[in-house]
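[Meeting: bench + compute handoff]

Bench side (C.D.) handed over the final construct sequence. Compute side (W.E.) agreed to return the predicted structure before the next meeting so the bench team could plan truncations. Sequence as handed over:
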Amino acid sequence: MRREVETVDRRRGRDYFQGKRFLCDRLPERLLQEKGKRREKAFNTLFERESKGQDMTKGKSFFYFWTPVLLYAGVIFTLSSFPISFPPGLQILNLDKLLHTIEYGIFGFLLARAFLRASPPFFRRSFQAWAVILAVCYGFTDEIHQSFVPTRDTSSIDLLFDGVGSILAQFFFERRFF
């Protein structure tokens, strides 16, 4: 729900007013109820940060959103470094594909969160597409990495399920956060 802004800064024109109007969703309720210079200062700060592409998430930094992505990418790399062999009784048909889907679903979710919350406006406009693209590219490099690990091999089907997991994560992200 968008809140209306009563004041218009005539010196800066209509575009500035629309920018302030859009940003009023991001202000805390107590600042929306304030009058005068404090409210104007909050709007101006948010508007300037938005136009520069800075993080708009209440003081949370770039590292807050991108550190989990990098850590999880490290976990994926580490897990793909181990030679894998299932005992004969535990081989379940297509368990590998399910694990790829879950693994890259989590990765796609973390990427979407990072692109939405701590990226320049260019990436924010289509953050879900960028999350899927980056997840699939990382899946491709992971498959290349697996070709050098004994008892592991590359598979385009695994790459396909990496993309499926990332796309499913975007549907979950959209339902959860929008």
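W.E. noted at the follow-up: Residues 146 and 152 are 6 Å apart (CA to CA). C.D. will use this when planning the next construct.
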